């Protein structure tokens, strides 16, 4: 349901009320359920909110890529064997995606793999091995 609410917020023309989100989802969810989901997403920093009179208007905190990353984290968090899930994910990556992931991880940790950070590092085995 969180993903549906986030998707609805991404489709909104601007900040959206909980009632707008409820209507956009077809009205099948109770207003209080939508508010609970929005509050949980706010606690997880997936959405932001601004006061609008006595209520709030809601905005997604991330773009579509951020939404996809949030979904991926949720799947990973729901599994009991994180190591196995990550190993399986990495082993299924294409060589190009593997290198992109390696480059992004190096940037995130401040490492530099040399003058050509986009090329493979012969000193390291592939991530999937």
Model description:
- This is BlaI/MecI/CopY family transcriptional regulator.
- By secondary structure, this protein is mostly helical.
- The protein is built from six helices and two strands.
- The protein has a two-stranded antiparallel sheet.
- A hairpin with a 2-residue loop joins strand 1 (47-52) and strand 2.
- The chain starts with a helix and ends in a 20-residue tail after the last helix.
Write the layout of secondary structure elements.
Blueprint: H1 2-11, H2 18-24, H3 31-43, E1 47-52, E2 55-60, H4 64-78, H5 82-91, H6 95-109
Antiparallel strand pairs: 1-2
Q: What is the end-to-end distance?
A: 36 Å
CATH top-level class of the largest domain? Mainly Alpha
User: Could you tell me the radius of gyration in angstroms?
Assistant: 19 Å
Helical content, roughly?
40-55%
* Beta-strand percent range: 5-15%
Instruction: Identify the CATH homologous superfamily of the largest domain.
Output: Winged helix-like DNA-binding domain superfamily/Winged helix DNA-binding domain
Count of alpha/pi helices: 6
Q: Largest sheet, if any?
A: 2 strands, antiparallel
Q: Could you tell me the number of beta strands? A: 2
Number of discrete domains: 2
CATH architecture label of the largest domain:
Orthogonal Bundle
Q: What series of H and E elements makes up the topology?
A: HHHEEHHH
CATH topology of the largest domain: Arc Repressor Mutant, subunit A
Widest sheet, order of strands: 1-2
Helix- and strand-based class? Answer: mainly alpha
Low-confidence runs of at least 5 consecutive residues: 114-125
Average pLDDT works out at 85
Shape: elongated
């Amino acid at each position: 349901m969180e993903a549906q609410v986030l998707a609805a917020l991404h489709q909104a023309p601007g900040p959206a009320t909980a009632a707008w989100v409820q209507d956009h989802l077809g009205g099948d969810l109770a207003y209080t359920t939508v508010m609970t989901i929005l509050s949980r997403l706010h606690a997880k920093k997936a959405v932001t909110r601004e006061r609008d009179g006595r209520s709030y208007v809601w905005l997604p905190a991330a773009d579509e890529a951020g939404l996809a990353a949030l979904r991926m984290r949720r799947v990973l968090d729901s599994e009991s064997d994180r190591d196995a899930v990550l190993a399986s994910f990495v082993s299924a990556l294409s060589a190009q995606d593997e290198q992109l992931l390696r480059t992004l991880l190096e940037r995130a940790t401040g490492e530099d793999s040399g003058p050509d950070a986009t090329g493979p590092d012969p000193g390291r085995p592939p991530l999937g091995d």
